[in-house]
Amino acid sequence: MIYKVSYVVTGTKQPGAIINQEQAPTVGEVIQLGKLTCQIVEIKDLIPPMGDFAYLHVTCEPLAEPKSD
């Protein structure tokens, strides 16, 4: 199954991301979006799975300030 995941980060100017991945995200999981470390707080199906694809909307909260280069 391929998961097409739309990530949105609350309370920041981070534009989020749309990522294709082979494993489903889980609530509580910590992820890296660009320079921002986030924790997943909510997952919703956008539409029912179709064939080998699932379409998800994920809401995240920032855990730390963006890393500086």
Poorly predicted regions: none
Query: Which class do the helix and strand fractions yield?
Result: mainly beta
What overall form do the CA principal axes indicate? elongated
Largest sheet: 5 strands, mixed
Task: Summarize the helix and strand pattern as letters.
Answer: EEEEE
What distance lies between the first and last C-alpha atoms, to the nearest angstrom? 35 Å
Radius of gyration: 12 Å
Tally of helical segments: 0
Percent range for helical residues? Answer: under 10%
Strand content is: over 45%
Strand order of the largest sheet: 2-1-5-4-3
- Number of DSSP strands? 5
Mean pLDDT: 91
Explain what you see:
With 69 residues, the chain is mainly beta. Helix content is 0%, strand content 61%. A 5-stranded mixed sheet has the order 2-1-5-4-3, with no helix packed on it. Strand 4 and strand 5 (53-62) form a beta hairpin. The mean pLDDT is 91.
Secondary structure topology:
Layout: E1 2-9, E2 17-21, E3 30-33, E4 36-50, E5 53-62
Parallel strand pairs: 1-5
Antiparallel strand pairs: 1-2, 3-4, 4-5
What's the short story on this structure?
This protein is mainly β and 69 residues long. It is built from no helices and five strands.
Features:
mainly beta
